[in-house]
Protein sidekick like (Dissostichus eleginoides), 475 residues
Amino acid sequence: MASFSWIRICFLSLTQAAAGFQSFDNVVMFALLGDSITLPCGIPSIKHCSSVNWNMAGEFHTVTEVVKAGRVTAPERGALLKDCSLKINHLVLDDARLYSCDNGVLNSNVSLEILKVVENPNPVEDTIELQCFLNMYRGLVACNNKGIHIKWITEDNSPLNGDRFQFKYPSKCFSKLIITKKRTDHHRKWKCQLTQNDMVKATITYTTTIKDGIEEVFTAVGESVSLSCRNTSSLSVGGSVKWAVGERTLTDDISPYGGQTEALHLNKDSSLVITKVGALNAGDYQCSESTDEQKVFKIRLHTLDVTSERVPGGDNLTLTCVLTCSKECGKDFDLLWSGGSHNSWQSGLIHVNNTLLNKLFLPVLSVTGELTCSIQREGEVMASKKWRSIDPLQTPAWVAVPLALLMCISAIGLYMYMKRKHNKNTENEQPSIGMTHIYEVIQDKHIEGPHQHRHTERGAVTTTDSFYDLLQAVN
């Protein structure tokens, strides 16, 4: 089939040469099934697309017109853009062919190849075999493109690590991933990535399904997680979903329409949502149809947390990263710290019952910024938990500003209170002094009364005037 592809290319090139076209180098483009792609027309200085034709190499040395004189023959599948490039929507395998753009004088060729992943239906016992390759409508592509490389990676784009993975390369355009099967490979995603000259050209994801398998889910404490029940698409009439963890049934107390709790609730798609996950939420969850409990979907939930401890009077801080597993933590799990100072050191992995620990010891004075603990499964980061330090010498502005404002308001209030109290005391003091002085003057006048006839008339007038002046002052 590979030789047949090159026969088609040669035939199309010869046809164009016989027509007197000047041809440019072939361009190879890569895509995935279902994608949209734009094929460039490499003819320089095209002024009007009305003179452009797009042709596609067909079977038995035939040529199919895709665009004729600027008009698309199948507009529901494609479109001619302003720069005369050809856009194809919703790619199918039959679209993976050799295309040619011409304007009657010049032409350029574009080869469209599809990256595909299939699973071997008959693998070696207890293994999974995935095959990733470049494909065209007639089958496997001959790998004549320089710089092509296919590799397998995890969902977070990290290299696959572990003894249970084998890689085989029949050619540069064909790769096999052979996996020693585990129950927890159920609904696990694997990526095949195509690069050309170290540039990523296409990446495709494949999800494996294991009979009686368990899907593993990792989440950090304090976050929210949604557990999907994938059997709901085939519910029978009148059927409902039943959720349980261990031996305890959960759906007796919750439903998608009522009876919700703060910790657990059901969505209308029957997925189970746990808000503010805690370590006690780790466990094996099962969902099944109430009318057919033979169909059970299983999810194993692991939780990740970080705790801190400082001995009173001590100079060191201990941060503990804790992975709580449903039963026993897998041997392919690893806990890693990042963001620590060079003065810190880690304890390494510690297994305690159903938990996996990694402690970080560091001087208190060197604790600044943010530290992160991550759980890795076979080299892939599954969840992370951050710990942030609080420096008492660096009070955040959002705390300092309200505190300063409160102090100003308190000072102003105290000042106004003291001023008002002072004014009130002054007002009470003035009338008291005036009346006392009048009383004393009257008393003196009464005592001196029997002796007034001894004074001269001038003295009496003076006394009267003084008393009048005193009353004027008081008034």
Observations:
- Confidence is low (pLDDT under 50) at residues 1-21, 392-399, 431-475.
